[in-house]
Specification:
SGNH_hydro, five-stranded parallel β-sheet, Ester_Hydrolysis_Enzymes, hydrolase, alpha/beta, 8 helices, single chain
Amino acid sequence: MATILCYGDSLTWGSAPNGGRYPKHLRWPNILNKLIGEHHQVINFGLPGRTTLWNDPFLEGRNGLAYIQAALETFGPVDILIIMLGTNDLKRHFNVGAYEAAKGVEKLIARSRIPNTYNFPAPSIVVVAPPNILSPAGSMAESFTGAVEKSQFFHKYYQEVAVQHHCIFLNSAGVIQPSEMDGVHLDAEGNEQLANALADLIHIEINK
């Protein structure tokens, strides 16, 4: 049995574009679990607002780097770690782009491979470049001013980091796009499509 930890933000947590949270069966980590077999364990450790490594002055506990080791020990041993973070890095008040987000992912990779208290082996890592942001609407509009253009470079910089650090890579923009309702979050179809794309990669990794 493999343990797969999904470390992400609201797109992993299951935020719906019209507000609230999808029921479990519509969130991509739960769909992924069904696709690869429920004898494996897929853990949804998404948190709305989580960044790669930035401290958000408006939301506490969103620094992904600060909690990755604790997450790996809490759920360990973890066989496969899926990292899909960076969308929130593009919020206007952080004033960074896709390059800096990718460098944040690079730090997460390094931190996840540090020897831990319990001698759990380092997990295989899947780096997922977040989907391109569409025209943010509603409450997303102000927060993500300028993010549409920046998000176009997620796949370039994330792939470079993944290749350099021998991680599996998925460019999610190649299979999904956010809902037009808010331009950031996934609709139910997007969750299903992402789960299917990841299932192909996870099957290969599990069966090595």
